[in-house]
Design goal:
- The protein is of the alpha+beta class and 259 residues long.
- The protein folds into 2 domains: 27-145, Barwin-like endoglucanases (Beta Barrel), CATH 2.40.40.10; 155-252, Immunoglobulin-like, CATH 2.60.40.
- Helices cover 16% and strands 33% of the residues.
- The chain is built from 4 helices and 14 strands.
- The chain has helices spanning 2-22, 55-59, 116-120, 126-135; strands at residues 31-38, 65-68, 81-86, 97-104, 112-115, 138-145, 155-158, 167-173, 180-188, 194-201, 204-208, 215-222, 233-236, 250-252.
- Strands 13-12-9-10-11-8-7-14 form an 8-stranded antiparallel sheet, with no helix packed on it. A 6-stranded mixed beta barrel has the order 1-5-2-4-3-6.
- The longest helix is centred in the first third of the chain and has 21 residues, at 2-22.
- It is elongated.
- It starts with a helix and ends in a 7-residue tail after the last strand.
- Bound molecules: 2-acetamido-2-deoxy-beta-D-glucopyranose (2 copies).
- Residues 48-152 form the Expansin-like EG45 domain.
- InterPro entries: Expan_Lol_pI, Expansin/allergen_DPBB_dom, Expansin_CBD, Expansin_CBD_sf, RlpA-like_DPBB, RlpA-like_sf.
- Keywords: Secreted, Signal.
- It is found in: Secreted.
- Belongs to the expansin family.
């Protein structure tokens, strides 16, 4: 009996050691931080985030979304995906959750203010998830990971504030991969003249006096490393935004970033 319990103890120690190792200990590209959650529905994300995704933000990624502080990067971080796992061995799973940034916010030196759904999702079980919610403030590790939207193409949502043909504002939805969209060009498909846009706020790109006719959209994908220009590539939409684009419409680009 004593022998058996020694073996059990030993395997428990090995197990803890293994889990600790599997968590990366900061060595596998993980950053150590803290996270809290905001008191939204446990089922949903938020439609009120700074990225201004609206109703799309409430259902995006099954409600596993987050506000970010420095990772928000003035809106460049909108739509970026991170693997976030909490570090309490008793309750937290080793894979944690994959979240999408939809909002900006900071609290007590946290990197993330997760949706309730994402926060509880870091638990080993639904009960452990409730225990983590009760803790409220947890140590985490996180790393950037590719977003992945099976059966979705990159799509352009024409913002409600748009006013044909004078003002065009849009968001880029379902952007797969782990690169940022750092610039956007709108190109006339007949004259081939292009206009370089700027991010107006959150995830929204906007332009007064937009080019006319069917419009091709070019998106600059940039890697994490700001010093490495070789990382940048232009992605050109396969489908055009139609000549008579309308506010509230969603246009399918006909393509996706291959990961
Ligand atoms: C836009 O134009 C296309 C083709 O010219 C037409 O089929 C479509 O009904 C138009 N849509 C709107 C909203 O006017
Ligand atoms: C994505 O675009 C391709 C090419 O236009 C199209 O065949 C496919 O149906 C689109 N996928 C979805 C989910 O709409």
């Amino acid at each position: 009996m004593a022998f058996l319990s020694k073996i059990l103890n030993l395997s428990a120690i090995l197990m803890v050691g293994f889990i600790y190792f599997a968590r990366g200990d900061g060595s596998a590209g993980f950053t150590q931080s803290k996270a809290v959650y905001y008191p939204n529905s446990i089922q949903q994300g938020t439609q009120y985030g700074s990225c201004e995704y609206g109703a799309f933000g409430a259902t995006l990624n099954g409600g596993d979304v987050s506000a970010a502080s420095r990772l928000y990067r003035n809106g460049v971080g909108c739509g970026a995906c991170y693997q976030v796992l909490c570090t309490n061995n008793k309750y937290c799973s080793t894979n944690g959750v994959k979240i999408v940034i939809t909002d900006s916010g900071a609290s007590d030196s946290t990197d993330f203010i997760l949706s309730q759904h994402a926060f509880a999702g870091m638990g080993q079980t639904p009960d452990a998830g409730l225990a983590i919610l009760a803790l409220g403030y947890v140590g985490i590790q996180y790393r950037r990971v590719p977003c992945n939207y099976p059966n979705k193409n990159i799509s352009f949502y024409i913002d409600k504030s748009s006013n044909f043909p004078y003002y065009l504002a849009f968001q880029i939805w379902y952007h797969s991969g782990d690169k940022d969209i750092t610039a956007v060009q709108l190109c006339e498909t007949i004259s081939l003249t292009c206009k370089l846009l700027e991010r107006s706020h959150g995830a929204t790109w906007a332009v007064g006096s937009p080019p006319s006719g069917p419009l091709s959209i070019r998106m600059l994908l940039s890697g994490d490393n700001d010093n490495d220009d070789n990382d940048d590539t232009w992605l050109v939409s396969a489908n055009n935004i139609p000549q008579n684009w309308t506010a509230g419409a969603i246009y399918d680009s006909g393509m996706q970033v291959q990961i």
